[in-house]
Structure formats: C-alpha cells, structure tokens
C-alpha cells in the first residue's frame, strides 16, 4: 500500500514541460565557468556564449541517472570543456513529480548566478532526500497530495529536509518559503519542462541536445563525452 501511495505522489506531476553553432572563440587565461546567463523561459547557461558546442541537459532531481551524471561529469566538464570556452552548458528542468518541482523552485531561488552551485548541491544530496521519500509515511504522502498549492512545496521541503541545503548557501528560510509559493515561477518551470520535452521528443532523463540535435543514445557521462569530443574534433 505504501509503495502505491508513493507512486501516486510521484505521479502527481506538473505537465512536462535551435542553438546556433558559433565560431570558436577560446580565450586564453579566461575561466568561462564564471560566466552565467539565464534564458527568458527559465533555463540557466554557464560558459562561453560563442562556444562551438552548445549543450542542453534535460534533468530531473528525482532521477538517479541524472544524479550519477551530475556527480561524474562535474569535474571534467568544468575543467576540460567549459573553462577554456569549448562548450557552453544549459540546464533545463524536466519536472516529473512534486519533489522535482520543489527542488527546482529551490535551486532557482535567489541570485541566478548561484544556480549551478545550488544545482550541484542538491544532486550531491540525492541519496539523502530520496531515502526520505522512500521512508515517507502514508500521512506524509497524503499531505503532499492534498495540500493547497501555496503550501504543498513548503511541506515537501520540510519533510525531506530540503531547506538546509539552501540555508547553508546563505538563503534564509523566509526567502525560501516565498520561492516555494511562487505560482508564476511554478508555471514557468512547468512550461519549460513541457516545451523542451515536446520540442525534442525527450522520453527520459538525463537527455542531451548538442547544437540543437537530440543525442538519442547518450544518457550518461560515459556516453556523452565521446559525442562532445566528436563535435569538437578531438
């Protein structure tokens, strides 16, 4: 019964929600990991705007393969691809369930330039918060499903100890509560998810779009890296 209730909670999802290839513009001595931008529809970029390879990552915070990808790719991506301007990376949310929406709202809370740090911080805690999801009681899951929208994501954040990650990054709880009840942002994230999934025909996470083309067989760092190297002629 508990498993069915958990499945029902995770199924209470918001609707799932062409990059031009630019000439190489490497900059000696410049660390492009410090260059950020936010798109009008809520995506987040890091890297050289004129990088020859433009990568879009479609990820879910409740996806274990996304967590593995984030953990395995973080170091080499930043050091070998983003830093010297070869690749620019955009993270796009694929919202699968209310927990996804909760963490997406939190990662987007505060200074947009801190998004990628927030993003890494939550994926580094994946096992911790998903263990709490699996251990959730029937009453907790019922509460997640039945709470008004203005309270739903604050309740999830409290039950799964999601506040502490952002508090440790300098964002106070009142500000986090405001973000977690921001219905306009919820709609933006849900639309981003639906639009991305429909545009590229994405069926699972993580999924990757390179220079406007979905890479069908890449769903991990081990399978994405050769595709990056091929685009770069390495």
Automatic annotation (TrEMBL):
Residues 41-226 form the Thioredoxin-like fold domain. Transmembrane segments: none annotated. Keywords: Signal. SUPFAM superfamilies: Thioredoxin-like (SSF52833). Residues 1-27 form the signal peptide. It holds the Pfam family Thioredoxin_4. It comes from the Bacteria. This is Thioredoxin domain-containing protein. It comes from Altericroceibacterium indicum.
